[in-house]
Design a protein that fits this description.
single chain, 122 residues, mainly beta, 5-stranded antiparallel sheet, two-stranded antiparallel ribbon, 9 strands, elongated
Length: 122
């Protein structure tokens, strides 16, 4: 990126990974459905100077990360049962840095988590 400010000259735009990939698939058979999602974000910088590291943790590289989610549902008469797992492989990553409360530092993403739901349709 070109800039009149020397500190920003020929730097990458902050909080903008060069590659964002989101893909997935759904498979449905009769009343059963399963879904899979995969997301990948390449490395990015958290400030316009493209600092790799700072002592106060306000700026620096945000490493590349990927995450997978899995979900399933089944319908039986008026009932629908759903379940899923987010962050299937329990990857440890972060997507941004905090410059104020609760920071300074990184804000970690959620670890693996499970959910379920039961619906009754009238």
């Amino acid at each position: 990126m070109n800039s009149a400010e020397a500190a920003f000259e020929n730097k990458k735009v902050e909080n903008a990974p060069s590659l964002i990939l989101k893909t997935g698939m759904n498979i449905k058979w009769k009343k059963f459905k399963i879904g899979y999602q995969y997301s990948y974000n390449s490395e990015q910088f958290s400030d316009a100077t493209n600092a790799v590291y700072t002592d106060n943790a306000l700026a620096g590289v945000i490493p590349a990360f990927w995450v997978m989610d899995l979900s399933a549902s089944y319908e039986y008469k008026k009932w629908k049962f759903e379940t899923g797992i987010n962050n299937l492989t329990d990857n440890r990553y972060f997507t941004r840095r905090a410059v104020g409360y609760p920071g300074p530092g990184i804000i970690p993403a959620d670890p693996i988590n499970f959910y379920g739901a039961v619906q009754l349709h009238f």
